[in-house]
């Protein structure tokens, strides 16, 4: 009888059943496949085990840090019934170190009448990490942009009570007095007099640099130039003189201002953020479809395409006279590289032209697209952080307000602080306690907010004894012109072609609009002289024109009222209230139409690169650089002492 086991054995001895002409597998081929599969499986398993082991060890190390940090706190001894939700979490704070604040005894020189007194005074050098978790030690004014940017009217210029840093240390008070050199009864021994030949030789060798005001000595009537001339050179008797030859019976008069309506030229900068036809880019910017199609058709044969790419910049030149506006030039840039320009000739035809002068607005056309960086939600605003930290380091509220005003042009005070934001200051104090008083003065500030670093020094100009703050190159830290004359306003409309909301047709918008409630104060963008303050018949309503230095004119329109004292010829300072928001003239609601005119051409106030404030030069710049180096040396020595003490 055949059992089941015997049947299985007999079936196992039979050859494999093959179908469709397949051959039996080779034993060596089967072994090679198995070997390679086994090897790859082993390698993969080893890698996965190593990764898992590394992750486990790394996670163990990371978990040990909060546990160790919690062990150093005081609340870990609490009983279980005292534990609250979130009580074991460690808050993100930055600890203040004693080395962040140092009191230095510094020799300073102060003018006392006709004498200069050198004495040692205490100064505080603080380095503040603004992102620390602090509570305000005393109340401070809430954020008010109008108060920050407005001028301190009727306040006399500050007196230099602290003086300047002296070049060397003094142990006690030293008095220095400077007197004029005596011209009579000279108590000094006189040197021997020069002979006539020696005098003539000195004049001959130094005659090229001798001058009387703007006139060279050789051109004076009482000097014979040939007497001191070399034998081989003739002396030019007209050297140093300037003359204007006017024909007989001809008078020269100053040019008179043209009162008739004149043509105004403006450049409209249009950034292209996605691929599109040129006509679409123009119509999206407010140009009539007929004008957009016409310019696109004229660009096509020169450019070879009627489309622009993302990152391109269109520059449209517009000539406007009254209510009429026409396009006379069009350019295309790829980044800042000029691709083409077409311009209208005398016959009104558009032909290829050369590149117009470069504008800064082309390079900054996409600046408004930069992402806004924000910090953690647990950090206060920049404004609150500065006040809270500076008050805890001994600075007075008046001094902090001064720092805020000086930083206003470079810092967004409503943004949240970042962990890396810091403020370094050097100021005079009353005693070793390091508390600032009403007589304390700020000498140096180094502020870092994000990637922006602002550093400035206090300096008294010896020419007019005015006190201001300058950067390392001797340029005033104060802005030449503010871009927004309504600090509390909301931006409504930009510079460029648009459809007029009242007239109903497209025209060039030659300024920017800031919306605010009726009666909101308007401040002067910069120091200047009022050229016009009254009604404008062209649709601007109550208008004020202020002429600034170097050909800049700012225009404020649609005001409900003009401030008292703002009349033609009056001087105004930056931040002074000159008028109030309204809707006079052609306006649909209360707003300020703000224009900036440079050498007769209206430009975009938000994109033009504005010049800096006052710049030192000559002897004043040399004295500033000397005082700046003294402060830098003093603070660097202080940092070295702190490192050595650690």
From TrEMBL:
Q: Does the keyword ATP-binding apply?
A: no
Query: According to the lineage, what is the superkingdom?
Result: Bacteria
Which biological process terms from the Gene Ontology are attached to this UniProt entry? proteolysis
Q: Per its UniProt record, what Gene3D superfamilies does this chain match?
A: 3.10.450.350, Glucose Permease (Domain IIA)
KW Protease (keyword) present: yes
What name appears for this protein in its UniProt entry? Murein DD-endopeptidase MepM/ murein hydrolase activator NlpD
Pfam families from the xrefs? Peptidase_M23
Example of a GO MF term: metalloendopeptidase activity
């Amino acid at each position: 009888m055949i059992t089941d086991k015997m049947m299985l054995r007999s079936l196992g001895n039979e050859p494999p059943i093959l179908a469709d002409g397949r051959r039996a597998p080779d034993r060596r081929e089967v072994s090679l496949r198995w070997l390679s599969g086994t090897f790859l499986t082993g390698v993969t398993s080893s890698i996965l085990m190593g990764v898992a082991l590394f992750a486990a060890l790394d996670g163990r190390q990371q978990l040990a840090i909060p546990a160790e940090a919690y062990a150093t706190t005081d609340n870990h001894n609490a009983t279980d019934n005292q534990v609250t939700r979130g009580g074991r979490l460690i808050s993100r704070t930055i600890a203040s170190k004693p080395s962040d604040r140092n009191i230095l005894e510094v020799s300073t020189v102060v003018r006392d009448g006709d004498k200069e007194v050198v004495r040692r005074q205490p100064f505080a050098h603080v380095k503040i990490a603004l992102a620390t978790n602090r509570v305000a030690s005393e109340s401070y004014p809430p954020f008010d942009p109008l108060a920050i940017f407005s001028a301190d009217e009727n306040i006399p210029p500050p007196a230099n009570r602290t003086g300047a840093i002296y070049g060397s240390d003094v142990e006690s008070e030293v008095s220095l007095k400077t007197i004029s050199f005596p011209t009579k009864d000279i108590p000094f021994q006189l040197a021997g007099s020069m002979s006539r030949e020696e005098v003539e030789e000195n004049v001959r060798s130094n005659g090229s640099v001798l001058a009387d005001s703007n006139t060279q000595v050789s051109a004076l009537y009482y000097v014979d130039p040939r007497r001191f001339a070399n034998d081989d050179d003739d002396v030019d008797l007209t050297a140093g003189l300037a003359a204007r030859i006017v024909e007989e019976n001809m008078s020269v008069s100053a040019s008179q201002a043209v009162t008739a309506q004149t043509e105004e030229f403006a450049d409209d900068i249009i950034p292209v953020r996605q691929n599109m036809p040129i006509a679409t880019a123009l119509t999206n910017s407010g140009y009539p479809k007929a004008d957009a199609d016409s310019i696109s058709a004229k660009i096509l044969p020169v450019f070879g395409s009627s489309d622009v790419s993302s990152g391109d910049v269109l520059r449209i030149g517009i000539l406007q006279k009254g209510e009429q506006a026409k396009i006379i030039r069009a350019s295309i840039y790829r980044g800042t590289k000029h691709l083409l320009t077409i311009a209208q000739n005398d016959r009104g035809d558009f032909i290829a032209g050369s590149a117009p002068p470069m504008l800064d607005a082309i390079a900054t056309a996409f600046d408004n697209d930069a992402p806004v960086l924000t910090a953690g939600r647990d950090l206060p605003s920049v404004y609150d952080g500065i006040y809270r930290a500076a008050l805890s380091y001994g600075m007075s509220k008046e001094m902090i307000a001064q720092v805020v005003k000086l930083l206003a042009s470079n810092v967004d005070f409503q943004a949240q602080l970042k962990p890396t934001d810091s403020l370094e200051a050097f100021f005079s104090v009353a005693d070793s306690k390091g508390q600032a008083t009403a007589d304390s003065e700020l000498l140096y500030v180094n502020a870092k907010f994000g990637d922006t670093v602002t550093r400035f020094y206090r300096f008294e100009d010896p020419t007019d004894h005015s006190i201001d703050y300058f950067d390392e190159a001797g340029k005033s830290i104060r802005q030449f012109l503010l871009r927004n004359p309504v600090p509390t306003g909301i931006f409504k409309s930009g510079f460029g072609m648009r459809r007029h909301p009242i007239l109903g047709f497209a025209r060039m918008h030659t300024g920017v609009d800031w919306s605010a409630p009726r009666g909101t104060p308007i401040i002067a963008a910069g120091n200047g002289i009022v050229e016009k303050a009254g009604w404008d018949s062209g649709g601007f309503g109550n208008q004020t024109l202020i002429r600034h230095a170097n050909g800049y004119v700012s225009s404020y329109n649609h005001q409900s009222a003009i401030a008292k004292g703002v009349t033609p010829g009056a001087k105004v300072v930056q931040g002074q209230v000159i008028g109030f928001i309204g809707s006079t003239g052609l306006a649909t609601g209360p707003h300020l139409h703000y224009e900036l005119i440079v050498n007769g051409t209206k430009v975009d106030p938000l994109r033009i690169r504005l010049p800096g404030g006052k710049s030192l030069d000559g002897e004043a710049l040399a004295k500033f650089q000397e005082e700046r180096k003294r402060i830098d040396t003093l603070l660097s020595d202080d940092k070295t002492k702190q490192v050595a003490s650690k």
